[in-house]
UniProtKB/TrEMBL annotation:
Protein name, entry field: COBRA-like protein 5
Pfam families named in the record: COBRA (PF04833)
Gene Ontology CC terms, in alphabetical order: plasma membrane
Keyword Glycoprotein: yes
Record-linked InterPro entries: COBRA_pln
Keywords: Glycoprotein, Signal
Swiss-Prot/TrEMBL GO biological process terms: cellulose microfibril organization; plant-type cell wall cellulose biosynthetic process
Encoding gene per record: LOC108810019
PANTHER family: COBRA-LIKE PROTEIN 5, PROTEIN COBRA
Taxonomic lineage from the root: Eukaryota, Viridiplantae, Streptophyta, Embryophyta, Tracheophyta
Record family assignment: Belongs to the COBRA family.
Signal peptide: 1-22
Length: 204
């Protein structure tokens, strides 16, 4: 074979290998799970959990940011344990103004000193996520429809960390999470669960 041609083939093989490795990283991933726990008059309440399944990589201060693009005309009615960075234009709402009417909202964790009423378990660490730990918040979504048939998965997920770049795959429906009560005698199931897997791509 021509030396040039074989060099090109080797290069192609190497680049195939490295890009597929980035997609199925042995170094772990960040998995973001949305569990729909209940319905409201035109949407749902979800518990959102971000797990750091990376063995050696922390999300340092000032912490993660998460953003996505709504598929319909969803709005964020309220949040506990995290907050949106911007409200956007909510002029069509005269009462009960949503927290965010942006098509692409951005969410950040609260600081450890957040008021008690705005905290839930595993929240409020200023977005710091050590290996093996998780970060949680509750979100109330409006204008989503209140059944499994009307809810659309958000798209274009981004998980942003200072000086680290992650690539997130599209959200995927998975079997609804089963939650166990603390006494492990009763179980409850989420109505719907989806997951987004984000993999570290490079330092920036
Ligand atoms: C993400 O990490 C978890 C925990 O190690 C693992 O179970 C899962 O398969 C990983 N997902 C992908 C798509 O790499």
């Amino acid at each position: 074979m021509e030396p040039l041609l074989s060099a090109v083939i080797v290069l192609l093989l190497v680049s195939c290998f490295t890009s597929s490795e980035a997609l199925t990283s042995n170094n772990g991933n960040i998995t973001i799970k949305w569990d729909i726990m209940s319905w409201n008059h035109d949407g749902y309440f979800a518990l959102v959990t971000a797990y750091n399944y990376q063995k050696h990589r922390s999300v340092p201060s000032p912490g993660w940011r998460m953003s996505w693009r709504w598929t319909k005309k969803e709005v964020i009615r309220s949040m506990v344990g995290a907050k949106t960075t911007e409200r956007g234009v909510c002029s069509m709402f005269k009462r009960n103004i949503p927290r965010s009417c942006l098509r692409k909202p951005t969410v950040v964790d609260l600081l450890p000193g957040a008021p008690y009423t705005q905290q839930i378990a595993n929240c409020c660490r200023g977005g710091v996520l050590k290996p093996g730990s998780e970060s949680e918040f509750e979100i109330s979504v409006g204008k989503a429809g209140n059944s499994v048939k009307t809810v659309r998965l958000p798209g274009n997920f981004m998980f942003t960390v200072p000086k680290q770049q992650y690539v997130c795959r599209p959200a995927k429906n998975v079997r609804p999470t089963v939650f166990m009560s603390p006494d492990t005698k009763r179980t409850a199931s989420a109505f719907m669960t989806w997951k987004i897997v984000c993999v570290f791509d490079k330092a920036t």
